[in-house]
Specification:
Helices cover 65% and strands 0% of the residues. The chain contains three helices and no strands. The longest helix is centred in the middle third of the chain and has 17 residues. The protein has one domain. With 60 residues, the chain is an all-alpha fold.
Length: 60
């Protein structure tokens, strides 16, 4: 079975955000909770530019 291609930088960031900040939250049918969780995740990402650079660096 062939190996799947590596995630591109944007996909790696989205996957990290989803797994760390959004996946295990109780957000069902609550728009305000979803909006708050997404804004919090975005703020954490933007506050940590070193992590963002690491996640978006191409691996060879």
């Amino acid at each position: 079975m062939p190996a799947s291609p590596a995630l591109n930088p944007a996909e790696r960031v989205c996957l990290d955000q989803r797994e760390c900040y959004l996946l295990h939250r109780m957000l069902i049918n609550d728009y305000e909770a979803v909006l708050e969780a997404v804004c919090r995740a975005r703020s954490r990402l933007l506050d940590n530019t070193g992590f963002l650079a690491l996640m978006t660096a191409y691996r060879t």
